[in-house]
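Re: the request from the purification team.
They wanted to know what the chain is likely to look like in 3D before they choose a buffer screen. I agreed to run a prediction and write the result into the notebook, where they can find it.
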Amino acid sequence: MRKNKKIAITGIIIIFGLFVIAGYSIYTISESISIVDREKKSVQTELNENQRTLDSLNSQLSNKQNDIKQTSENLNSTIDEYELRQSGTKYTLHNPLYWEVRNFINSDKTDTKPYDEDSFNCANFAQEVNNNAENMGIRCAYVTLNLSGPDHALVAFNTTDRGLVYFEPQEDYEVKSLEIGKDYYADCVVPPSGYYYDKDPENVIQGFELYW
């Protein structure tokens, strides 16, 4: 009886030991799976973050490539125009870039001529600037301005990058968009810093026409 009892106790101990070993093994495997799962999530989060960074860099690269392409096209167009001018070959008038208009206005000497109501008035200034621009291949409009007082004349350019821009041919000042009812000098002409025009009831814009 004692021998059988010992065998039974030994069997129970062995079985208990097997359960303990099995339980520990299951716990160990479970912990390993949990660790692997956490590492997987961490790696996936890092991959997602890297993907977002990559997408952002690709977007920036695409924008830069588009900017470079546009700049290259503008540069090639400008080079072609300059080469054409240097060759002396006549060609159709072109709508300029804004900086091209600025360079022309700054280099043109019409504004240095004295104003004379009878022999060289605002209409003559506008006409000479118009002719000088077209002689350089730049498309330029002669603009008649109907004011509440004496009429006036100026010039305009349809730039390819900033649209329609106006200039005062007598002082080379840029002019904001013309609008009926506004005071031409006080509201539209852009004088140098620190200088301004007073409003005058004779300078109210009644209408205007562009002649290309």
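For the purification team: The chain has two domains: 1-91, 98-211.
Please add any questions underneath this entry.
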